[in-house]
Amino acid sequence: MKKILIAAGLAMASQAFSQGVMIVNNYSKYDFTGSLIAGGTSAANGCYPRVGNLGSIAMPADSHMGNGKELMYKDYQTQYTSSLYPTATWEVYPNSTNQNIMSWNDPNLAPTGTISTTTQWFATKFSTSLLEFRANLALTTPCNPNSMDYYATPSGNEFAEIFTINGITYLQLYSM
Could you report the per-residue pLDDT of 121-137, keeping only the tens digit for each? Predict the structure, then answer.
């Protein structure tokens, strides 16, 4: 019984620190092109590991949860077979000096693996066909204390935001 309780506790703890779900809702009239980034949240370990898609993710305008065309990544592996916009290859930085290129099905990216359980979605670098509608956004964490989680174009007609609700990280793009 004791072993079962310990195993259950470890499973819940790993879920508490897993990368969580990433959802991108593009309510704008511009195609999204960019990167999604996850990373360690402890400044004590240099905020590593870090993980980002290799190459750009392309997502059409007007793609969101309302019409079933949102980008949703539940983890690094299952996103490849379940997302409308899959990432085949990930860049993984275990520390500031090393980089590994990993395929989506690499065992190191398993949902219960060390990389998945020690990273959380926190940032994006994106652009659109409108030159002024591009930004680097990140959640405020101990690793990013001065980050920008909201961006608006000078006209105010386009804006984007990144935020987390109940372990789900949302990136939302809008245009008027």
Answer: 999 999 999 999 999 99
